[in-house]
Design goal:
Radius of gyration: 14 Å
Organism: Dreissena polymorpha
Number of strands: 4
Structural class: mainly alpha
Number of domains: 1
InterPro entries: Znf_C2H2_type (IPR013087)
Strand order of the largest sheet: 1-2
Protein name: C2H2-type domain-containing protein
Length: about 110
């Protein structure tokens, strides 16, 4: 049994909890575009972020294999929540998503 720490709802498994957290109820596994200046582009799926980056930010110096569910932590709007649910990530540095965003901007300059 998995429990949502935001609303206390119970779910039979982690997959169901993931669906709940992605849904409009919380949108806690959302990822953000690190390269959009001046506005916050948020996506519910890492694949949607990857598609956006390929279309809009063609000069970005990042390999497209970085856009995996595990690496989504680097782009997570709520990294702490993302780390609680998505397996195989190593959130050793809680500022990692912010640092990754700063590094990405520096590569474009």
């Amino acid at each position: 049994m998995e429990k949502c720490w935001l609303c206390e709802a119970n779910f039979p498994d982690r997959k169901s909890l993931n669906v709940h957290l992605i849904s409009s109820a919380h949108r806690r596994l959302s990822v953000m575009c690190a390269w959009c200046d001046g506005k916050e582009n948020v996506y519910t799926r890492i694949a949607d972020l990857e598609s956006h980056v390929k279309k809009v930010h063609r000069k970005v110096a990042i390999s497209m294999d970085q856009f995996t569910r595990e690496n989504g932590f680097d782009f997570a709007k709520y990294p702490e929540d993302y780390a609680k649910v998505v397996e195989n990530i190593n959130p050793t540095n809680p500022r990692r998503p912010i640092k990754r965003k700063e590094e990405s901007h520096n590569k474009l300059e």
